[in-house]
Amino acid sequence: MNKLILVVEDEKPIVDILNFNLGREGYRVEYALDGEEGLKKALELRPDLILLDVMLPAMDGFEVCRRVREVQKLTPIIMLTAREEETDKVLGLELGADDYITKPFSMRELLARVKANIRRGDAGAAEGRNEPDNRGEGGALDIDEDSLEVFKNGRPLGLTQREFELINFLAKSKGKVFSREELMEKVWNYDYYGDARTVDVTIRRLREKVEDNPGSPRHIITKRGAGYMFAG
Q1: CB-based burial label for 71 (10 Å; 0-12, 13-18, 19+)
Q2: What is the DSSP string of 103-140?
Q3: 59 contacts: CB under 8 Å, gap ≥ 6
Q4: Three-class SS of residue 44?
Q5: pLDDT by residue (tens digit) across 212-227?
Q6: Strand runs (DSSP E) across the chain, as ranges?
Q7: Which of 31-40, 161-170, 220-229 has the highest mean pLDDT?
Q8: Higher pLDDT pick, 7 / 190
Q9: Residue 90 CA neighbour count, 13 Å, CB half
Q10: Is the peptide bond before 104 cis (omega within 30 degrees of 0)?
Q11: Is the separation of the CB atoms in 144 and 128 below 8 Å?
């Protein structure tokens, strides 16, 4: 069955354009014109991806994102924003969005990001169990690819799919430093689209869940001027 994309956008002309172009790429499309309807459809339909506008009537996109993430950790969410303000972008990512696109956007860029997020969702199939050697001080981490979950001292951390993919990727190359651009390519599947600040926000959010002291991390380390690595 074709992948289902939910478009939550209050401007009907944009909905129509997205519906046409996504349909032409083989996706099924449902839409909602306000936040409350969007939340209802997201929870009922469980789409394969959500395109979510920030400025919506009834309930804004930030609140929709937050409430979807309470029950659907793995559904990719791309936020659409008409504003360039850093705070808007960071807030969306902090609430669990996987990425954002600023209006006006090119359809080529949007389709590329949709394809990348759908592809990474499909790639979440299990291949086994990856247990990094980090059983020492600071809490044991256990990365389980079957459940797409990370456990700390036996307790599940409730990561989003993007957070899981990021730590899983870093852990598989323990001790190797990856630049932000490399992580955008390998984890986000973006060759040239995307904002590297997305990586920084996701790392910060991940540290808050994984580290005993996010301000002094021992698992996910920053190499100044170079990037990030998993230290065990």
Answers
A1: exposed
A2: SS--HHHHHHHHHHHHHHHHTT----EE--S--STT--
A3: 34, 35, 36, 38, 39
A4: helix
A5: 999 999 999 999 889 9
A6: 4-8, 28-32, 49-53, 77-81, 99-102, 129-130, 141-144, 149-152, 155-156, 220-223, 227-230
A7: 31-40
A8: 7
A9: 9
A10: yes
A11: no
Has residue 115 got a pLDDT over 60? Answer: yes
Handedness of CA 37, 38, 39, 41 (dihedral sign): positive
**Residue 39 forms beta bridges with which residues?**
none
Global pTM exceeds 0.70: yes
Instruction: Count CB-CB contacts under 10 A for residue 10.
Output: 17
pLDDT of 58? 95
Q: Are 53 and 10 a contacting pair, CB within 8 Å?
A: yes
Report the alpha-carbon distance of residue 104 to residue 101 in Å, rounded: 9
Tokens of 37: 């309807």
